[in-house]
Amino acid sequence: MSKSATKPASRGPERSRAQPKLAASDFGSRLRRARNERGKTLREVSELSGISITYLSDLERGVLVNPTLDTLKKIAEALDVSLNELLGVDTEETPARYSNALEEFRRGNHFQVALAEQAHRERVSVEELEEDWLRAMAGIRIRGRAPNDASDYLFIFEAIRRALDRR
């Protein structure tokens, strides 16, 4: 075999030189969405998984096209998601999952009572209103940091609710 026909040895993860492959960009979108829904920064996922920030960023952007199963498992564990969810192989659409602190706040009696009262006042469904509140609360980030505790979310919820009720 001639030298020009031999395939060079791989030097690490394969990177897409042209347009990112559709599957890689879909995976990257799912990875970013899962990370954001849980209020985690790339740095936090890196620290939890032992995978570099650059590598994680390349995955999210669809630049890397073949992460190993071990890498995928570490990321899934760091984000507390199933491999199926991360890979998009679940046939059913799974509802958005939020951080543990936000889920704890969601289950709290105070939030549920306040939701029921507001839904009644505004003549909307509790489910629709709950999803609006949770999406808003999940999006709270200051320099990449999100609230860490259900009581933090309760404090923020009450402040926003009171400000909106004054209108």
Describe this structure in words.
The chain has 167 residues and is mainly α. It has two domains: 15-87, lambda repressor-like DNA-binding domains (434 Repressor (Amino-terminal Domain)); 100-165, no CATH class. It has nine helices and no strands. The longest helix has 16 residues, at 22-37. Residues 1-12 and 15-20 have low confidence and may be disordered.
List keywords for this structure.
167 residues, 9 helices, 2 domains, 434 Repressor (Amino-terminal Domain)
Structure summarized in a few sentences:
With 167 residues, the protein is mainly α. It has helices spanning 22-37, 42-49, 53-60, 69-79, 83-87, 100-107, 109-122, 126-138, 150-165.
The whole-number mean of residue pLDDT values reads 81
From the 3D structure, determine the CATH topology of the largest domain. 434 Repressor (Amino-terminal Domain)
* Proportion of beta-strand residues: under 5%
Structural class: mainly alpha
Largest sheet: none
Distinct helical segment count: 9
CATH superfamily of the largest domain: lambda repressor-like DNA-binding domains
Tell me the series of helices and strands, N- to C-terminal: HHHHHHHHH
Overall radius of gyration:
21 Å
Q: What's the structural domain tally?
A: 2
Question: Given the C-alpha coordinates, what overall shape results?
Answer: elongated
